[in-house]
Design brief:
The protein is of the alpha+beta class. It contains 6 helices and 7 strands. Helix content is about 30%, strand content about 15%. The structure holds iron/sulfur cluster.
Amino acid sequence: MSGYADGAISPPWRVLRNRACYTPGKASATTHEREIFTLLPGLSWIDTADIFREQSRANTARVLSRLFNFRTPIDCTAGREALWNYAESLLPKRSARVYNSALLDLGALVCLPRQPKCAICPVKKFCRPNDPQTLPIKKTPRPPKELIEARAFTFRHNRILLEQSSGRWHGMWILPPAQVRSVITRPIHTSIFPFTNHRITLKVFAQPAPRTRARGQGRWFSIAQLASIPLPSPHRRAVEQLLAKRPQKLGSTLAEA
Ligand code: SF4
């Protein structure tokens, strides 16, 4: 694979590949190299290194499962262990870095997920499967668990009541839990979003401001402040949609207590 011109790979990937190749926690960079990462707007050096390592693992697993015609799902413990045993059996005693780099190039440029370029592959004669595009094998994903979350939209004097999450979105500001007294109460907003292996239905109910609030529980934010505080996307979308509807459609359902 050393015959592949480095110019075939984008500069940030090339830098990471050369300096951090497959060594989690050891990504380091010169100032110049960090500057190259400004080519990836919105991503920090650390983010990019994480993405690179994740992508590297996927590419390596794909190449190895094809080379060995490995038919066990690679996303289960037994599959992962067996695959990395294969990987170790190939690792040369010297120049492991060059070997890792070549494996990455092979996965990124030749052994592509859907259409591997077997005709030009330098390791074709060692490769076993007739149907490489079907590898690697992964477990059939479990169907997502359904969850319903009832949240409160409490709005007063142009301010909205939020609370700081201690759970799923730890530290972020979210709509507080709703106290729904009757099953016939209709939500003013419903949306569905995925979270890990859950499919969550977010139902937001208009609620009056609580008469008393436990210390540290909930905080009022002006509409202008919302842009500068961290809100998880599903809650931000709900808040923005509800504020956009105000006051015409929500009308008296809004708790202008
Ligand atoms: S021969 Fe084809 S499947 Fe095998 S490693 Fe090369 S590109 Fe991948």
